[in-house]
Specification:
The chain is mainly alpha-helical. It is built from eight helices and two strands, in the order βααααααααβ. The longest helix is centred in the middle third of the chain and has 29 residues. It is globular. The protein starts with a strand and ends in a 7-residue tail after the last strand.
Length: 186
């Protein structure tokens, strides 16, 4: 991506947030139900606000009403049945970790001749793939362990991205805008 050197911290903000969320999930895995209640309440509020906008502006296309219904139904589901998200989130996250790690393993293996640290990335991606399979195959029986595994994976990927970003930081300082790929794991 083409980035101005003054945007270095802005490009890594999501990685830092991911690191913090990963640490929270690792330390307190039962927080997911609380998050479901809060997100559900926020979706309900957003749905009501979208209905209000629809009726105040008297729109003819009904997009706000449609999104209001979706937000309200999703919010009610999250608030009343956080177990649904507790089941879906680990499965979806496990699929993402498995596919991302598999692509990273392939990419690291392809660049083994030109990148001297390819084996580190390959091993980390292999660990990520194993973690992805674990998460997919045991989402209910070990939900707390799954949430902890999600937290650990978020910490690993975040640390890898931050280390890579700081190693590439010299490139930011050399030019006004440079092409920098700060992802080791993918």
């Amino acid at each position: 991506m083409k980035i101005n050197k003054s945007q270095f911290w802005y490009t890594n903000l999501s990685t830092i947030i991911s690191l913090v969320v990963g640490i929270i999930f690792t330390i307190k895995p039962d927080i997911l139900a609380v998050i479901c209640h809060w997100v559900g309440a926020l979706f309900c509020i957003a749905g009501i606000a979208l209905f209000a906008v629809y009726f105040i502006q008297k729109q003819t296309n009904g997009a706000n009403a449609f999104y209001g219904i979706l937000s309200l139904l999703g919010g009610i589901l999250l608030y009343l049945a956080p177990g649904v998200l507790s089941f879906m989130l680990p499965v979806l996250f496990g699929l993402w970790v498995l596919s991302s790690s598999g692509m990273g393993m392939y990419r690291n293996f392809l660049f083994r001749g030109s990148h001297q640290h390819w084996l580190i990335g390959f091993i980390m991606c292999t660990m990520g793939a194993i973690l992805g399979v674990y998460i997919i195959t045991r989402p209910i029986s070990a939900l707390n362990a799954t949430i902890r595994a999600i937290g650990i994976a978020m910490i690993i990927f975040s640390v890898l991205r931050l280390v890579s970003a700081f190693l590439a930081r010299k490139q930011y300082q050399k030019a006004d805008s440079v092409y920098v790929d700060t992802t080791i794991e993918e």
